[in-house]
Amino acid sequence: MLTSYFWSGDAIRSRYVSDIVLADTLDIPMPPPRLLADWQREIAMHMVLEPGDVEVMPLARARARWPEYGRCVQAVSDWTHALGLPDTLASSDVALMVCRGARYHHDAGQYGGAAFCNLFLSDDRGLDVHFPSVGQRIPLKRGTALIFDTGQPHGVIQRGSSGFDAADFAPEEDYVQLFLTWELPIEDAHVARALKIEFDVAPSFALKLDEEQVRLDGEKVVVCPASGHWRPAG
Known about the structure:
The protein has 234 residues and is α+β, with helices and mostly antiparallel strands. The chain has 6 helices and 15 strands.
């Protein structure tokens, strides 16, 4: 009974967290060398990207150096259309992100009204995205595409590991992954159908809340950053 309480307009609404993770590998071109070099400079000079960190990268500048950006977006659009999500991508916010692994977390404390659609742009670095609550583990490589509920715990870990450990990400090794992410509105009928979302499962309790959160069997919970398991908040 994992429940996400999220803002819907001016009110908090409740829904069950989906255990569906949609995944595929799309055919996308390698980013051009000039863009890869620009990303490396940005990370080295303007970021402190520690193991487990997930940060935003400048997308507008990247698009100016990325002739085949549109081809990447089209590949994701074709995939989402095939999943029964017509035009959802075009109307959704997109961002360019970077991570050096990722501690286990959920995003429904800020994005409970969304599902994430991610397209990974980097080559295989021996990392997996792991959804421990649903037992799904997906190798990350260029073209890996995912759609999942923001309330579902996930992390990016070493392929041979059972959890997140910062010591697995030695500074001399290149474990950086770049990806595009779209926020798909969870209340969109097509998104809700694809993830089999059930809404308004605790309407009376939702009226008492003034912030987004996730509760397990009625208890407010957070994610253990090392294991991905739920634990009581506070």
